[in-house]
Task: structure prediction
Amino acid sequence: MTPSYVSPSLNHLIEELMSLPGIGRKTAQRLAFYILKMPKERSEALAESIINATTRLQYCSICGNLTEQDPCAICSSEKRTSTIVCVVESPSNVLALEKMGAFRGKYHVLHGVLSPLDGVGPDDLNVETLLKRIPAEKIEEIVLAINPNVEGEATAFYLAKLLKPLGVHVTRIAHGLPAGGDLEYADEVTLTRAFSGRQAL
Amino acid sequence: MTPSYVSPSLNHLIEELMSLPGIGRKTAQRLAFYILKMPKERSEALAESIINATTRLQYCSICGNLTEQDPCAICSSEKRTSTIVCVVESPSNVLALEKMGAFRGKYHVLHGVLSPLDGVGPDDLNVETLLKRIPAEKIEEIVLAINPNVEGEATAFYLAKLLKPLGVHVTRIAHGLPAGGDLEYADEVTLTRAFSGRQAL
Result:
């Protein structure tokens, strides 16, 4: 449907940008024309950053997080306690938690959650290495920071069942009202969790 | 504010994506992780499309549109009548009009509109070449398809004043209710234009 008189490389750029999530034709066009207006070195920097990231980044052999050197900066850091490990679904979750900056333990990235419908079973998750880490790093507590949706819950319960017998303390981050949230507009599940998770003041 | 334990090339990719219009940190992160999950050849294709577009595309010496060869496909086309020229603000407007596919004349891209506040005067617009084109291409009609905002209106009136003495028929695309628009929700300016531009049925 792209018009015949439009230059191929412009079309190609637009098509490529459209392949990104949440970017439709209109947005792709706006981005394409913006990129074409950029100074050449800026647009090259953008392209190079894509190449660099995709070529340099790998998964840490210990925690499975995205890293340039293996083991990653967090796994090889002396400053971070290795007795407490935070289990997350994806590297993006690590980024979010690191931004918070409050957690000073280490991480373990599952690279997914249990999802039978999508054919994702326990063996498809990065669990094997986690089991090995428990004795190796003398892990005392494992904090499950998995998203509170159906698959996430299932994964959390599966891991708890799997890890508890290994004599490790398994916890889960609190679920409840978000900061600035309003009781009126909170859904039932959130409210129920907020109540069951109530704490003494 | 980017956390210390996040790998530089990931940060760099996110920063670069954030430099694009309408893309904040959250979106940039989502895009970055999506790009990292892509097959390598796909992400390379994306990067190459940026490089290719920025290196290959130039402005047509005749109409000022983005093109790979000069003159552009439209200017050098035999199929398009050169007696009617559509004047637009930017190459993206040409793309929009070409999508419509109804216009079979040629184009002229101003690369901006008069905007004294931003210090954009008549000399900063691609008008000189347009004046040369009128005798050279025996242009009979010039359709002003400039966005109907304050700067656009000013530019349209300036061009009309400039072009009419040259014995060329100057028209402007109709302004009125958009397709599927609702009288109730149309602003006064649009309604006024819709009335003043009413046509016999």
Observations:
- The domain at 76-200 of chain A is CATH 3.40.1360.10 (Dna Topoisomerase Vi A Subunit; Chain: A, domain 2).
